[in-house]
Amino acid sequence: MNDDICQIDDILAPWQSVIGRDFQGYRNHVVRMVTFCQRLRVCRREDVQKLVIAGCFHDIGLWTRDTLDYLPPSLPPAAEYLAANGLSDWLPEIEQMILLHHKLRPVEDGLSPLVELFRQGDLVDFSLGRVCFSLSRAEVREVQGQYPNAGFHRMLLRRSWRWFLRHPLNPAPMMKW
To answer: Taking the model in full, what pTM does it have?
Structure first.
């Protein structure tokens, strides 16, 4: 996992000033969700790389566009990273991972099993471990202890409340059926 954390740190480093005070919380969220994905299913090295890249960019639109409707704005930075690193052939799968990570029901028709795995890993972290799929509560707590929340969920609540006040008829635009 240490190599994965180094890759996460390398990918997120250029975004630190954009993310600002939320950086440590977001970075730890990405580390936790990628860790949960790897504990939910044994992954090939290439799969882990895809999870790391999608993880780094999956919520980035929160800061680049300052919006709770952040899924589409999270795609261009991911596409730019993939193109710059000769990985453009991964784009359809990474895009689907990002666009469907808040789907309420399981992804049954994804381009690969990683799409559903990514959704599960994010949900474990988003739910603070209340949804843990095949992970034990002890495993979830262990990962949470290693990579503290650092205000990530508090930031989400603050942004959600601000969005709701301006858009009461569309309170959660990032959620998908």
So the answer is: 0.95
